Structures are given as C-alpha cells and as structure tokens.
C-alpha cells in the first residue's frame, strides 16, 4: 500500500493524496531530541473505537512498511487503548487485536478508559448508565445483544449484562484483563490518556493514565519522557514540545492516526477509507 503525503488535514480528509514519502517535522525542542533505541521502529496507534475497517487498512500499511524496513529492525506496534464503544464493530476490533500475530512485528496493547468501563460493567451492572452514555450501546449491539431501553429497571439491565457476559468470548475477556496501563520505549512514554504532571512516571496511577485530560493537556512544562497518548480527540493530531496526541476521532471523522518513530524521526500517518497519508 503506497503512503501519500497530505498537505493539510483538510486535504487529507477529502482524499487528496501524493505518492512520495517525505519526513514530517514535528520538532520543537524536547520532541526534536527524543529518540527510540537503535534499530527500533515504533508505530503508536490512536483510539480505534470500533472502526475495524480503518484498523485493517492501517495494519496492512504497517506490515508492509515494517517489512520494508528490513529484518535487522525491531518493529513494534503499540495500541494506545479505546478499542471499543461508539463505532460499529467493537467485537470485531477485539477479535482482531486478540488474535494479532505478525512475523517480525511485536504487539503491545494498552488499556483505555473504555476498556476499563467494559470490564466494570461485566461485573457491576449498576454501572450501565455511565457506560451507555459513553458509547457502550454500540459495543453491546456488536455482540448481538439488545440493550435495554433508557430508564429500564435494574432487573432488565442485569438481564442484558448477563447476556453480554455470555456473548463475550473468554478470549476477549482475557485480552481485556491483560491490557497494560503504560509502556516506556527510549525517550517516549506511551499511555492512553496522559500522565499527572509533577509525579514521576514510575509513580503514575492507572486512573490518571486512563482518564486524565485537562491537568495533563494544560501543563506547559517538560516530562521525563515525551508522552504519546490518545483519549483527547481533535480532528488533527496534537503535537507540542513534550507530547504527541493521536486520537483523531476515528469513529466520528473516519480518520485513524498513528505516529511512526524510527531513531529521532517522527511521522504522523493518517488512514481513512480512501487511502493512507502523511499528516503535515
């Protein structure tokens, strides 16, 4: 699959593509200096939210790109969480990720707040209203379970949750249970939502790694590592001196984004149903 270079988010979203690959400059001070270890190639993927179609298109490009990098390169794909809810095929996304095995490409899957909510509802039906508002209805439907009407009595919710427990394969449950809260590679720290400023990375708590927003996004100073995250949605990737945000709202915009890191080179890759491009 050929990678194209987009002049802007507007051109990328309308499917205007180029055929050459050119390095993107994300650099300011801290980000410019950050690197992964030698012979390491990282792909960090933003929030998928049930968009199996976009995930498959991105995976096809990543596999081809990693193979082109050569056998001496240690290629790793890191999924930043929020695989379920809102989009049409959460079940399909969990099946793909829980089965993903590509020669020459290691896979790391991090936990997002939506996976946390899904796990909680399987054990605690009383949490259904919050999950439903956050997009859980789409996940329930993807498993072939009919969600209860709004304001249903607890008995109806409990019946739905019991049906969902039966519909979710053990393989998917095991996958959700095994998700990691964060990962550090070279000068980069990967987490779904971000980190709590002022707290050493080793002391970060899972609640912040999965849920933090303003306290992280509004922080203007450096962190111990460049933070690569999803969770906070924008129509284009969010980049500053100390962080890279790759949640471009795939379920709503039809655009899934990842950042490719090789040495000190950082490139933002966008995918929609029309093609693959380099954000500029």
Would you mind describing this structure in some detail?
It is a single chain. This protein is an alpha/beta fold. The protein contains 11 helices and 12 strands. A hairpin with a 2-residue loop joins strand 11 (265-272) and strand 12 (275-278). The chain is globular and about 55 Å long. Mean pLDDT is 90; it is low at 1-29.
Helix content: 25-40%
Beta-strand segment tally: 12
Query: In order across it, which strands form the biggest sheet?
Result: 1-12-11-10-2-3-4
Largest sheet entry: 7 strands, mixed
List keywords for this structure.
280 residues; 36% helix; disordered N terminus; alpha/beta; five-stranded mixed sheet; seven-stranded mixed sheet; single chain; 20% strand
Helices and strands in order, then pairings?
Elements: E1 4-5, H1 9-13, H2 29-33, E2 40-45, H3 52-69, E3 74-79, H4 90-99, E4 105-109, H5 113-123, H6 128-142, H7 154-167, H8 170-177, E5 182-185, E6 188-191, H9 206-211, H10 214-217, E7 226-229, E8 238-240, E9 243-245, H11 250-253, E10 256-262, E11 265-272, E12 275-278
Parallel strand pairs: 1-12, 2-3, 3-4, 6-7, 7-9
Antiparallel strand pairs: 2-10, 5-6, 8-9, 10-11, 11-12
Helix pairs in contact: 5-6
Gist of the model:
The protein contains eleven helices and twelve strands. It is α/β, with parallel strands linked by helices and 280 residues long.
């Amino acid at each position: 699959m050929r990678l194209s270079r987009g002049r802007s988010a507007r051109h990328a979203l309308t499917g205007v593509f180029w055929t050459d690959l050119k390095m993107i400059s994300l650099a300011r001070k801290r980000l410019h200096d950050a690197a992964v270890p030698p012979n390491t190639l990282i792909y960090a993927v933003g929030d998928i939210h049930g968009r199996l179609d976009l995930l498959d298109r991105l995976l096809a490009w990543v596999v081809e790109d990693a193979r082109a990098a050569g056998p001496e390169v240690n290629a790793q794909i890191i999924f930043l969480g929020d695989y379920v809810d809102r989009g049409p095929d959460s079940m399909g996304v969990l099946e793909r990720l829980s089965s993903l095995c590509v020669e020459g490409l290691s896979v790391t899957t991090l936990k997002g707040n939506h996976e946390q909510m899904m796990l909680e509802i399987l054990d605690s039906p009383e949490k259904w209203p919050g999950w439903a508002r956050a997009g859980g209805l789409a996940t329930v439907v993807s498993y072939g379970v009919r969600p209860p009407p709004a304001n249903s009595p607890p008995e109806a919710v409990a019946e739905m949750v019991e049906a969902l427990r039966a519909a979710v394969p053990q393989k998917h449950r095991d996958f959700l249970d095994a998700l990691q809260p964060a990962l550090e590679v070279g000068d980069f720290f990967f987490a779904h939502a971000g980190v709590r400023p002022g707290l050493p990375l080793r002391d970060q708590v899972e609640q912040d790694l999965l849920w933090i927003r303003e306290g992280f996004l509004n922080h203007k100073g450096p962190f111990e590592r460049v933070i690569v995250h999803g969770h906070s949605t924008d129509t284009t990737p969010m980049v500053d001196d100390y962080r890279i945000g790759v949640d471009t709202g795939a379920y709503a915009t039809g655009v899934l984004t990842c950042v490719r890191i090789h040495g000190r080179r950082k490139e933002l890759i966008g995918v929609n149903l029309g093609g693959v491009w380099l954000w500029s």
